[in-house]
Amino acid sequence: MDPSHSVTVRQSEIPSDRRRPLAFLRKVALTTLKLAPCLENAELCLTLTDDDGIQSLNARYRGQDKSTDVLSFRLEDEQESGFWLPEGMPRPLGDVIVSLDTVERQAAESANSVESELAWVICHGTLHLLGFDHRTDAELQEMRERERTVLSALGIARSWPELWPVGP
Known about the structure:
Layout: E1 6-10, H1 22-35, E2 42-49, H2 51-62, E3 70-74, H3 76-80, E4 91-99, H4 100-110, H5 114-129, H6 137-153
Parallel strand pairs: 1-2, 2-4
Antiparallel strand pairs: 3-4
Helix pairs in contact: 1-5, 1-6, 4-5, 5-6
């Protein structure tokens, strides 16, 4: 049975002329869930905000008073401690928060389209909700492979500048 995933999108903090098509945003997250793969019904919330919004969250929850491109707030830890859902209910994975300001800046700096950069950060944040990380070279390599697979499946081209130093 193919799982049925859902993605709730919020972009109310973004001026209407800068908002992105809901179908595109959902498609990126849903494709990531499908190809990761997330084998059970799952849901996540995707929020587009600006640098001020993400900086506030980054300072409050990560102790880093600066903007960033994407934050993921995973609910899995609470679920692992005994939380269960009635049969048929989707598993809430958590929240992916994206700064459209930072995405637009990064796209210009890396010569990628805003669509490509946005797809990458949504995919990246969704993979974090699924438990993937990049604390080691091996983890980073696995995450990059999954990101490339998702963007390729979506038909989105991108240059892949080195985003983090590899090695000690």
